[in-house]
Amino acid sequence: MRSSSNPAFRNLPRGAAEYGPNVGFNQPQGGVPGYGPPQTSAGAGDRPMTVDDVVIKTALSLGTALVTGVLTAIWAISQIPVSASGKIMGIPGAVIGALVGAMIVGLVISLVIIFKQKPSGPLTLAYSAVEGVFLGAISGLFEALYPGIALQAIVGTAGVFIAMLVVYKTGAVKVTPKLTKWIVGAVVGVAILMLVNLVTSFFGFNPLRDGGPIAIIFSLVVIGVAAFSFLLDFDQADRMIREGMPSKWAWFAAFGLMTTLVWLYLEILRLLSYFQND
């Protein structure tokens, strides 16, 4: 299995040989087009993974994140005092606690999933719920300052996701080893720049996140890298399907897609905030 910029898809076990090759997103053959060959009478936990499995598990994960995110955002907005001029008068400790707590819990759950390298529906849904709280708390802060920005970020994230899915399904951009290496390298490079900028920000130097021209360009680059990372996520899920991995591994594919969606949403939200500044 090819390498991926998404740590969730690193070092996955190969599909069980007894299932034989299945059919991925772009290779219909036999059975129902696009959904693999006719299924055997094996139990649901043993049958090969299909496109439907990935779609359903991803939808459940995304739906969970949306519910907890919207509820948290509504709560956070109600807690944040805003002056008549539109300035935040202070961030309540409860909101900060929810944000930091969800960030830490989400990180722990993601590390457990990544290092165990085993699919888990409960853990994936728990990760999605916690990330929803994290994103909801951040969105609430931005929304208190710039009404309507959260919805714009959601629409933008959905648009990028759908566009990259169309690009992948139509074969407009082929996921080759060369492209994979380029995307992985870009992700590593962006991560290093973010880390360096975080350190320098403690000394008052924050060029990549200060809302200026350089920050806008950097955010656009990060959004582009995150968008292309979807191609690798789709390709990895496609390979898991074609290699006949058990259906329960669809939860792992859903987790991988969720991590990229969270990253993309945060960066789009940040970029939109730059254009709100006077």
From TrEMBL:
This is Bax inhibitor 1 like family protein. It comes from the Bacteria. The keyword Transmembrane applies. The chain crosses the membrane at residues 54-77, 89-115, 122-142, 148-170, 182-205, 211-234, 246-266. InterPro entries: BaxI_1-like. It comes from Amycolatopsis regifaucium. It holds the Pfam family BaxI_1. Keywords: Membrane, Transmembrane, Transmembrane helix. Residues 28-47 are annotated as: Disordered.
